[in-house]
Write a structure and sequence with these properties.
Length: 81
Amino acid sequence: MSPKHYLLLRRMHLARRALRDSSPDTTTVTEIATQYGFWQFGRFAGEYKTLFGEAPSTTLHRPHEWQRALRSHFRISAKSE
């Protein structure tokens, strides 16, 4: 793997982590993409989908792990009452 390709993959993974950890109410895909040095947004979205199998906006809008756990906890608590 070339150094250039490694750096691209590294930035893509960092962008994915930021998308997963951000709220769609306060953050946009464009903000995350530019934060990690992607300026051609269509190309970023295409490469992201090729690498991760979904659009960046899908990652951003997916509920976070802690939100799923919280919902699950409250469903279980409500059933036990």
